[in-house]
From TrEMBL:
GO terms for molecular function: heme binding; molybdenum ion binding; molybdopterin cofactor binding; sulfite oxidase activity. InterPro entries: Cyt_B5-like_heme/steroid-bd (IPR001199), Cyt_B5-like_heme/steroid_sf (IPR036400), Cyt_B5_heme-BS (IPR018506), Ig_E-set (IPR014756), MoCF_OxRdtse_dimer (IPR005066), Mopterin_OxRdtase_euk (IPR008335), OxRdtase_Mopterin-bd_dom (IPR000572), OxRdtase_Mopterin-bd_sf (IPR036374). It comes from Nesidiocoris tenuis. This is Sulfite oxidase. Signal peptide: none annotated. The keyword Disulfide bond does not apply. GO terms for biological process: sulfur compound metabolic process.
Length: 588
């Protein structure tokens, strides 16, 4: 690879202020700053409206006057766009060319580097057989993309999906990105280019490009659902629509798919159950329906609900969910505790610690989506774990797991495996990627490179959370005659803990108003699986034209939401339960 083809970006005129904003192009890194004879090896960090002299002082360059600044580039990496009030000059291999805007700079760089995956003259050509030999860290991890061959051994930690990309090693990225389209972004493909080692044989590159769409059989969806990603399909309703009903209509229930929706033929469908100390069993849907039917009302929530707010602190991995990746429904089916008892499970003698679930949704390598729950939850009749075949009184829809899905109330939605195919009792958690290498929380100081996935606990019960659904951010809200604004939303806590209070403020927490809990379950603590809907009138003063509403909930264990996302930030953007903050405009 011809590294260093872009040798420098040279600022020839400057004002005392400039912006550095996060770029849509992740990857290039500023190697150094130069002013006259002084050089710093520190990376340029993201600041907004920073005085140039202050910035130079912070970087200890020793120059308090502006001379010439050269931003050296290497490895085709770039993390920031630079916005200056005046034009700046670029050097491309000593070929000086004047550009006056970042848009022109983008065009120059793109034309110079070419499109990601394009053929690069002078690089060696490999066959797919060569790539297949490099599928382990010991032999290096190779993949192909379009006409390019890449060694991604050092790319894994930078990939938004983390180690999920390991599913593609030794082969083409196209099938992987067809399934995980959320990861196929301009940022990722440009970052990938720095790991380019060669070209793929043209005939094989053409063959890889002629793949089918694995999502062609997905079902149709309600147009009111707002997608955060279309392939795989992930979407949520508008917040105001979400709380119109205590029981969320199926068509407005959020959809969280990791892979294409499987097409299930009931004539060939059966759930396999196995593990030590029980009789291996295979149950068809009709056989399942012959067992006692139970109905529960339970809220299911994605671990990434409200992730878009956490991402405002710092970039996180995952879909940018709003506050509506949650829903409350009735679920009917067979209690897992009764099924396990029927096939011989004896808690007093069985050494199983977990119940693993596998779905019919498959990765390109035919690995199923999977998750697990503790055995104590599974076998407790009061744990109410259901193998559900009905949602809101009707057969499950395909997006929600037809014909059977797991509902583990009070547990994160990631463990409520859809399109259930297999149940395994084991001493170990599910070996699936989503149990072992995803859906875990970390300290704010942990990075993708330092995360110890094997040591972190998998998310099971979720913490207390609330959200303001009406009004929405930046709405123009009519002030009531009594100088209040009406605010409505939901609150929920995992583990069967009921909500006992919701507090809302419009003045930064100087005065809180307790909300009325207008719709809630009357279930006992420990089995309080449903959310609570709330409403409150919050005072505002006559002098205010804008306010920021804050909401926080308290559960029966007096767990309360943290004030800020800053101190609960984590690389996966999960457990997003800080105060919900909604700025609004007041209309009188």
């Amino acid at each position: 690879m011809n590294k260093g083809r872009i040798s420098a970006l040279t600022l020839t005129r400057a004002t005392s202020y400039f912006d550095i904003r996060p770029s849509q192009y992740h990857g290039w890194i500023c190697n150094s700053l130069e002013t006259r004879s002084c050089t710093s090896g520190q990376y340029l960090k993201a600041h907004s409206h920073i005085n140039m002299c202050e910035l130079l002082g912070r970087l200890a360059l020793g120059e308090m006057t502006m001379g010439r600044i050269t931003l050296h580039i290497f490895k085709f990496q770039f993390e920031f766009e630079f916005y200056f009030q005046f034009g700046f000059q670029c050097e491309f291999d000593h070929d000086r060319r004047q550009v006056s805007s970042t848009e022109e700079l983008d065009e120059e760089v793109a034309s110079y580097l070419g499109k990601p995956g394009g053929r690069i003259d002078g690089l060696p050509t490999y066959k797919m057989a060569d790539v297949a030999k490099h599928s382990s860290a010991e032999k290096r991890l190779w993949v192909t993309y379009k006409e390019g061959v890449y060694d991604i051994t050092d790319f894994v930690d930078s990939h938004p999906g983390g180690e999920a990309i390991l599913m593609a090693v030794g082969s083409a990225l196209e099938p992987f990105w067809n399934l995980y389209a959320v990861h196929k972004t301009p940022q990722v493909t440009k970052l990938l280019e720095q790991y380019r080692i060669g070209n793929l044989d043209p005939a094989e590159a053409k063959e890889n490009a002629e793949g089918h769409d694995p999502y062609h059989a997905d079902p149709s969806r309600d147009p009111e659902l707002v997608p955060s990603n279309k392939k795989p399909f992930n979407a949520e309703p508008l917040p105001e629509r979400l709380i119109e009903n205590y029981i969320t209509p199926t068509e407005y229930f959020y959809v969280r798919n990791h892979l294409p929706v499987p097409v299930v033929d009931l004539s060939n469908y059966a759930i396999e159950i196995e593990g030590p100390g029980i009789k291996s069993t295979s149950l068809t849907l009709e056989e399942l329906k012959k067992m006692p039917k139970h109905t529960i009302t339970a809220t299911v929530m994605c671990a990434g609900n409200r992730r878009s707010e956490m991402s405002q602190v710092k970039e996180v991995k995952g879909l940018y969910w709003g506050p509506s990746a949650i829903g409350n429904a009735t679920w009917s089916g067979v209690k897992l505790s009764e099924l396990l008892e029927k096939i011989g499970f004896d808690e007093s003698t069985n050494e199983a610690l977990h119940v693993q679930f596998e779905g019919l949704d498959l990765t390109p390598e035919s690995n199923p989506y999977g998750g697990s729950i503790p055995i104590e939850k599974a076998v407790d009749p009061k744990g109410d774990v259901i193998l559900a075949y009905e949602m809101n009184g009707k057969p499950l829809t395909r997006d929600h797991g037809y014909p059977v899905r797991v509902i583990a109330p009070g547990i994160v939605g990631a463990r409520c495996v859809k399109w259930l195919n297999r149940i395994v009792l084991s001493k170990e958690e599910s070996p699936a990627f989503w149990q072992r290498r995803d859906y875990k929380g970390f300290s704010p100081n942990v990075t993708a490179e330092t995360a110890k996935w094997d040591e972190a606990a998998a998310i099971e019960e979720l913490p207390v959370i609330s959200a303001i659904c009406v009004p929405s951010k930046h709405d123009h809200v009519h002030v009531n005659d009594d100088s209040t604004v009406t605010v409505r939303g939901y609150a929920w806590s995992g583990g069967g803990r009921p909500i006992i209070r919701v507090d809302v403020t419009s003045d930064g927490g100087n005065r809180w108003v307790e909300a009325e809990l207008v719709e809630k379950s009357d279930a006992r603590p420990g089995r309080h699986w449903s959310w609570t809907l709330w409403e409150v009138k919050v005072p505002v003063t006559a002098s205010q034209n804008q306010v920021e509403l804050w909401a926080k909930a308290v559960d029966s264990s007096y767990n309360v939401q943290p004030e800020s996302f800053k101190h609960i930030w984590n690389i996966r953007g999960v457990l997003n339960n800080a105060y919900h903050r909604v700025p609004i405009n007041l209309v009188r």
